[in-house]
Specification:
single chain; alpha+beta; Beta-galactosidase, Chain A, domain 5; 13 helices; globular
Length: about 650
């Protein structure tokens, strides 16, 4: 279907395969007959007959115009007689012009991706993005001239991907990809179990979020949260510390003492007996012994600190002594029939297998581990990667679920979460990455990609797409900011990869800490600081940074009705100077030889507009630079001091 006045083409493609070797495309142009009925408000398109798929093979697409001038589409096929499986449905493919200033908005990964489409056209196809859909199910191409939107409205969270390319004709093609769940024989008939929405609109990333939001807020994961109070709401500052109690706890207690009634939360890693990112899920007992661990938790609670510990909820170390060959039946197989693994800890080299949602033994182990953690007196448990890595297709032949596509991963892990809640009533749980699939079963998520300028996971930036849709419904916290720029080091790792010399990184990259701490908070996330050591809260060298930590926690806590409960409003209309920030690209697993500097231009004043539940509206600003900055917003103007926050009631 083509909407000529907007230069918009909506089409489809199937990918055929044998579940092992390279897939081949089936295109509409290969079909023998085409017919259509209806008009722009309601249209049915039918393609029929194919030399390899049968003369009675038919593809049917139905389009309905929505009230906001988008198109709601559905696709199905029947009479398929081909030898290969229809493995993937690309629908609706969005083909649009490559416009000046065009940006790709992808809501399907963590808080949201936002980057410019490359302008350089090369022979053949140039890949732009190829990501699995995890957090939300929409994408957009935004430009001042015209913007385009596409989504899957799938309440089951089946396995899906999103890909965008720049083709030879200078057009951008967006591919929402749905994986069909197959078994022994190809389907003769199949109907996409949900509708998709596509079309043109005016506006940017925030406006795209509002299109998706109208549907999203009516879904079960939102409705299940109505009238539920989030136990993480009082937290004013998270501290992501790792190591033994002697180095982890004292700075947290001092921070809690200095903040008074503002709750500090400790996200404690490396409490377990084994080296980090190895031997999962067998993390119990604690490395300092059960008694000392429980005594430490008791001390934190007595001083008002909320504490949770790390666990690995979807990965199984296949290289440690506790691994048994029969456990392999629990793991995800790739399409080629190979166990899906990755080496998370590059210093140890242990391979971690991805656990399928259908697993039972692994889930029993998670149940046992959660019980130990609950009974030790902790306030919460963190379930690593559950929110970001449990959407993968699985082809394990011994599993009962369909091969490849399907909603079995989310269904299996939702079942696990419900079990953990029933066994540990009233025990808060958090996971990794913004995600809607588990939002009603976890109380919060750590959001690391807000530090993408440091991490460099993709070319481009991040935008708060998830908070524009779902803010106020779940707790989000996180970043990767470290006051001195020095990541923690697990003493159980080999020592030879460790950096031999550390510089005064906070002087070499003076804006990074302030930027990384303030931006997520302005976006409505609970603030977090990583690797807070005793010298960082006592040494005069870091006094200004420590003051900023205290100011951030107090500012956030005093504005909870906006920054936790509120609704994000359009950010348009704000103006300030542009400032270049030098980011030290370094995290836990960064080797010295891989160290690099990322130089990124950002607004000198970070801002966001919020509306509280009582209707009050306010403009929130952060100046992360060391100089006073000016700002303007719709007739208002002013200055903001260095390393400070400002709230302006509208």
């Amino acid at each position: 279907m083509e909407v000529k006045e907007k230069n918009l083409q909506l089409t489809w493609k199937f990918m055929l395969g044998d579940m092992h070797s390279e897939k081949v495309p089936l295109l509409p142009s290969e079909m023998e007959h085409f017919s259509q009925t209806g008009d722009d408000e309601h249209r049915i398109e039918i393609w029929k007959g194919h030399p390899d798929c049968g003369k009675d093979f038919q593809v049917r697409v139905e389009w309905n115009k929505t009230k906001d001038d988008l198109y709601s589409g559905h696709i199905s096929f029947s009479g398929y007689q081909g030898n290969l499986f229809v493995e993937e449905i690309y629908f609706p493919i969005l083909v649009v012009p490559h416009l000046s200033g065009q940006r790709m908005i992808f809501g399907g990964w963590d808080i949201g991706m936002d980057f410019e489409i490359p302008r350089k056209k090369e022979p053949g196809i140039q890949g732009v993005i190829d990501f699995q859909i995890t957090s939300m199910q929409f994408s957009a191409l935004t430009a001042p001239e015209c913007s385009y939107y596409v989504d899957h409205r799938d309440p089951t969270h089946s396995v899906k991907f999103m890909k965008a390319i720049l083709n030879d004709d200078g057009q951008v093609e967006c591919y929402p990809i749905y994986l069909i769940g197959n078994r022994e024989l190809p389907f003769a008939d199949f109907s996409l179990p949900h509708v998709c929405t596509a079309g043109s609109f005016s506006g940017g990333w925030f406006d795209a979020c509002q299109i998706y939001k109208e549907w999203a807020l009516e879904q079960p994961w939102v409705q299940n949260l109505k009238n539920r109070k989030n136990p993480l709401r009082p937290i004013g500052m998270w501290i992501w510390n790792r190591g033994n109690s002697e180095e982890v706890i004292p700075p947290v207690l001092k921070l809690q003492q200095d903040l008074g009634k503002v709750t500090v939360a400790l996200d404690w890693y490396w409490w377990h007996h084994n080296p980090y990112d190895t031997e999962t899920p067998d993390l119990w007992p604690p490395r300092e012994g059960v008694k000392k661990f429980c005594d430490s938790i008791r001390k934190l609670k007595e001083n008002g600190v909320f504490t949770q510990v790390y666990t690995a909820a979807a990965g199984w170390d296949i290289d440690y002594p506790g691994w048994k060959p029969e456990y392999e039946r629990e793991l995800v197989y790739d399409r080629g029939g190979i166990v899906r693994t990755r080496v998370a800890n590059i210093y140890m080299g242990n391979r971690c297998g991805r656990v399928c949602g259908e697993a039972s033994v692994f889930h029993d182990k998670m149940s046992e581990l959660t019980r130990h953690i609950h009974d030790s007196g902790l306030d919460s448990i963190y379930l690593d990667v559950l929110g970001c890595a449990t959407y993968v297709p699985c082809y394990n032949p011994v599993h009962q679920h369909t091969w490849g596509g399907g909603s079995y991963q989310v269904e299996g892990y939702r079942k696990l979460l419900k079990r953990l809640h029933s066994e540990n009533p009233g025990f808060p749980m958090t996971t990794e990455n913004c995600n809607e699939a588990y939002m009603d079963l976890v109380d919060g998520s750590i959001v690391i990609q807000v530090s993408n300028d440091r991490i460099g996971s993709w070319i481009g930036g991040v935008s708060p797409l998830f908070t524009a849709v779902y803010h106020g419904l779940t707790a989000l916290f996180g970043n990767y900011t470290m006051p001195d720029g020095i990541p923690p080091w697990d003493d159980l790792w080999p020592q030879h990869p460790r950096w031999k010399k550390e510089e005064l990184w906070h002087r070499l990259y003076p804006d990074q800490f302030y930027f990384e701490l303030s931006r997520p908070m302005i976006w409505g996330l609970q603030p977090m600081v990583c690797n807070l050591r005793w010298n960082l809260v006592t040494d005069p060298e870091f006094a200004e940074m420590y003051r900023f930590i205290l100011d951030t926690a107090n500012f956030y806590h005093s504005n909870l009705k906006f920054l936790f409960d509120g609704k994000m409003l359009s950010p348009d209309g704000f103006h300030c100077n542009v400032h270049r920030v030098d980011f030290m690209s370094r995290v836990v697993y960064t080797r010295l030889e891989n160290f690099k500097i990322n130089r990124v231009n950002h607004p000198a004043v970070l801002h966001c507009l919020w509306e509280a539940p009582d209707g009050e509206k306010a403009l929130f600003m952060a100046n992360y630079t060391a100089k006073e900055q000016t700002w303007e917003y719709k007739g208002l103007s002013g200055t903001i001091k260095p390393h400070s926050y400002l709230k302006v009631t509208l």
